[in-house]
Amino acid sequence: MTLADRLVIAIDGPSGSGKSSTSREVARRLGIGYLDTGAMYRAVAVAFLDSGVAVDDTAGIIEATRSADIQVSLDPDQRWVRVNGRDVTEEIREPRTSENVSAVSTIPECRADLVERQRALMDSAPDGVVAEGRDITTVVYPDADLRILLTASPEARLRRRRGDLDPEVTEDELRDQVLRRDEDDSKLVEFQTAAEGVTLLDTSDMGFEQVVQTIIDMARDAGRADA
Ligand code: DC
User: What spacing in Å lies between the alpha carbon of 226 and ligand 1's midpoint?
Assistant: First the structure.
């Protein structure tokens, strides 16, 4: 397969917009790679917490980011993340990580470091990749063949995230994880409105299959005729 046959799809959106499950399924159906960039921010959060760095120690978090050895699966059928040789696939989803990950994503030096790694990972996928996050369409890969911003109303996002989480999580914790975190993150990256050339897809009233199929159709138009 030549470079021209590769397909790169960038998908951004807030928590609960459905971008992870959608991106993974689109990658699977197109037979290309899948990169969850949020998992990399989360892996760094685990690394700095484990090494005893305080949440307000900016220099310590930057150092923990730069020195972190992050390995992440690009296979949509295999979900794993390792940091500094340790499998943290489960731990990155735990409340301790979710509560502290903004400490990484709000530091510009940490973002710059991770953005470079994300670009390199995307370029390493032989057939192309669907990468999802908050700044893929704008910063990480503005030259992607297809750029989509997935949105959904706050109500739809809270409802979907609730479905992903432990039933013990309270309403306040849920709102903190979804709405407060997006508020924090949007201070550095704009992911609530689509940049020029980015297609806005509001999924509030769409089912999963409909969202996946819409993106596959857009991918076909963007150049992968066999999609
Ligand atoms: O998508 P997620 O919830 O796994 O993201 C984890 C955190 O990382 C969240 O605070 C948003 C942030 N993030 C980011 O700032 N930029 C990305 N490309 C991906 C995630």
Answer: 31
